[in-house]
Amino acid sequence: MNTLWKIRIAIVVVFVGLIISGVTAFPLLHELNFLASLFVEEGGSLDPQKYTGLTHWVLRVREGLEVTYEQYPFIAYGTDWLAFAHLMIALFFILPYRDPIRYIGVLYVGIWASLLIFPLALICGPLREIPFFWRLIDCSFGAFCLPPLIYAIRGTNALEKENS
Questions:
Q1: How many domains does the chain have?
Q2: Residues with Cβ < 8 Å from 80, sequence gap 6 or more?
Q3: Which pLDDT belongs to residue 155?
Q4: In which domain, by residue range, is 120 found?
């Protein structure tokens, strides 16, 4: 497999991750109801106060969304925009997929975005009362995105030397 295809595979990994992140940000309440069904036996209480750990967190977020969506459905529009932003950011990676040498800057922006997830999660997370374990999950998005981006940049630099 040549260098260009290896670069493209790395970019596709990032692209697909952004698409999945975006698409899954639309049906949040449905996803949390599904998670609740996995954590709580059928007919069991959905009161978060009766649980601890991850079950408590899932049920608390589910309850928060349910109450918010019932009383203020327009709030969900914010997460719709979050989802849309993920999808739009993914589109930018089409450029380096087609011509990585010319659009290597997009890959560097991806590196910075991945790195900046960490301070966002670790600073804003406590302010929003997000449990530490969930902040680590949020940080994992940046951590998983970094290796294919670094690989794509290194491959692009090698490809540029090959073409010189």
A1: 1
A2: 25, 26
A3: 97
A4: 3-163
